[in-house]
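Entry 14: structure prediction run for M6 family metalloprotease domain-containing protein. Input pasted below.
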Amino acid sequence: MQLPPISNAVRSLWFVGAMLSLTFGTAVATAPPRFGPVPAQIELASQAGVLSVGPSSSPSGGGATLLAQPDWLVPVVLVDFPDQAFAAGSTNAHWDSALFDTTGATLRGSVYDYFRWASNGRARVRGRVVARIRMPQPKTYYANNSWGLGVLSTPNNIYGVIDEALRASDATVNWAPFDLNHDGMVDMLWVVHSGIGGEATVARDNLWSVTSTMSSWAQGSPFTSNDPIPGGGGLRVRIDRFSMLPELSAHHAGALAEIGVFCHEFGHALGLPDLYDTSGNSRNFGPGNWSLMSTGTYGGDGVTPESPAHPGAWASAFLGWAPVHTLTTDSVLTLRSVAAGGTVHSFFFGGENGPEHFMIEYRDRSGFDSSLPSEGLLVYHLDDALIGARLGVNRVNAGAIPGLRLVEADGLGDLVDGRSRGDASDIFPGPLGVERVDDRTVPNLRANNGTLTHTALEDITPLGDSLRVRVRTRPLGWRPLEVLPGVSGTPAGVLGSARRAARVINGEIVAASSEVNLGVARVIVRVKPASGPWGTPTVLNNGGAAATEPTLAAIGGNDAAAIWSDSRHGSNELYCRVRRQGVWMGEIRLTDLPGSSRYPAMVPDGLGHVHLVWQYTPPGGTPQLLYARVVPGQTAVAPVPVSPDSSRPDAPAIAATPTGGCYVLWPERATTPARLWFARIDPDSGVGPRKRLTPNDGSSQAAVAAAVDQFGTLHAVWPTVVSGRSEIHYHAEPGPTSGLGNPDSTLENRAEAIQNLALEVDSKGSMHMTFEALTGGVNTVRYRHRTTGGVWDFGSTGITRPEDGFATQIQPVPESEDRVTLVFGSSIGIEGRWMSCTRDAFATRLPTSAPLPAPAPPHAALRAHPNPLRGGVELRLRWLDSIPPLHAEIEVVDLRGRRMIARPLMKELGVWEAHVPGELTARWPAGVYFVRVAGGSRAERVVLLH
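Run finished. Output tokens:
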């Protein structure tokens, strides 16, 4: 089979995969009910396969792809019944004109006109009435009290009508001209029955409008005509695919049917599925009146079927009627409608291709869209994997997660719930003036699993016959890479997840690294002031022996300590230097053991203690983990064993608890595959029992990174390989008695190798994870964030590219939830350098124009504290009611109405609050500000002093 051209633009493989699923599978076809939910009979018929339309097959058994067919010639057979004759005006000439006029003579346009418009000239649908038949039985005989959908009741069903009509008309009709794709089958047959369609009434003695195949019904098979296939060696033209359609209008009593239902059913002939939920008694109308393949059959307002709505962005892209551009970077777009030749734009987290994504299009009241509720931007949330899996059974929008959902600007979700079939408030900006949508607005652009996509549509502005929108595809605030000053050595290989950088009280970042210069590894430190550039590097270790595997911690005030493994005595020992008031004190030897001390990992606990763990291998023995609580500046440590004698631990990780204890985690290589173990060390009772971190799932757990939040919960991440793909798994332990209690979850699943994870928790409990990903043979830096509310980013953000060098020793240094600095080494060839990259979402968040809030009366449920507010002090915004507002986001605006910041309400200890950090309020000029629910008018006044 030959696939049709989709687009010359970049397309997602998932999107193409969904196309293939439809091409080689089935498309299902029913008109949506005019009122109420979808009846159960539709679901039963769909499950039985009678509403499935597969690709037509050639006499030789091959196939033809109907999606690629731009030209159609449709034969129409008119049938009435002894108990229901055609209306007086239902003539052959009427239907030829109403359906297939090409001259523009019809008042509202024909089916031919509609598809020329919808496809931007790419599809041509012509046809003619070829026969007029009186059926031998009354209509109730075929409807059989089930709208003709009884699969097993042949001939008392729709199949019975089609079969009788073809037998009665075959002698007078030459079917050969209606096979334009030359596969020996009539491309599509329309049978128009007298009366109204079953979709327009609750009475089951009418026939439901469907598109189907004769071969899918009980005792059914394709009809073989008496007309030879030209050049077919005596084979006869056959008929299998058909649509059953009504004579009378469902909206105007006594009038002949409008083109809406004809266009909808022909959408199925082209290969489109229904975009409403076809499962029984469902109310999800998908895009509703905004799409031909849902209730837009009856017009953009639901009551003008003579002017059916456009199929929409997804359908147009699917059929190759519109080019698709996948946005990989932040962009400002000017959109035209698809019917006018506009492009469909797709975007998602990080500009990456994948099954889940958003799609946008501009719609205006032109052409057949003249009855739309409003004009503006439509935003669709799609999952091509779900669409592809459900196409064959016509369940695109069935289930808890629809394959295609309209992001309704009013955030009500009434299309999914069935409270509406489409209204003016669905579109952006619409009558509500919604000019922005992102992760934290209502509605939002979060992924189906609730994770953050960091995408946004901003400054949505209609421009007459077009629309401008700013599309953000990457997280806010990532600044350009910075190369640190000073001569750098080549970054040395470092095993384990020991912390190598920290932020001290005055905001300075102190970072340690291991670098090879003139063939010798040295420990280097660099310092970045809170508001200045990085300083020049300083060598910490003395002598010419190798110094590797540094770990660094802030130890109170503006002081810091660094510990490393040093080989100056032959076997490796641990050395330390302490920084006091900005000056590095002399070296201190911490260990004097006969074996080798490697992979130190150090962490402070906030109570004045520093916890240290390392791997020690005695002469001729097996490795073990030793732990000591260190007083910075002391000359020796008294270690205690953590791992059992039978253990073979690899490089450890350590995380401090708020109560003065710590967790030690390690990969255990005494088992195959390696498994993760941990032990809790209490300041009073010492080393606790050793426990497995997670159940054995058969995959190797060869490394681990960990952190503890302010509530004492241990968080751990580790790399593994599952089915040939690299994954990062995440696990949380809420307390000291836990172990194997919580299943782990998968954060990353990538084709490239993953290694050297680091995990940090900031003071509010937000998490920052980094790792190396092998991209194009080069290690690149990737970052992923988890909010204080426990919501992870949808995926990781690529910080470096292969051309930026081979990255290693990555260390995140968080300041707050929205501000973090990454420090890492990078080498290109034999030349090394050190780099940093900072994300500051506060500084780069663009002010949004907003109406000036009224200073009085104050909001009854919103309070700001402290007020007056001093610059540099955290502003706490509290919602006094037990139920949060619909738009669960609080914004601060200045006197000119410019939005300074928006923060989500989070429930903390039973109270809904939002916090604006002091580092942000310090940047605001003194003056009067207003705090309000996002988009609201009533506000709390805040006076900012400096």
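Notes: The longest strand covers residues 124-134. Will compare against the previous run tomorrow.
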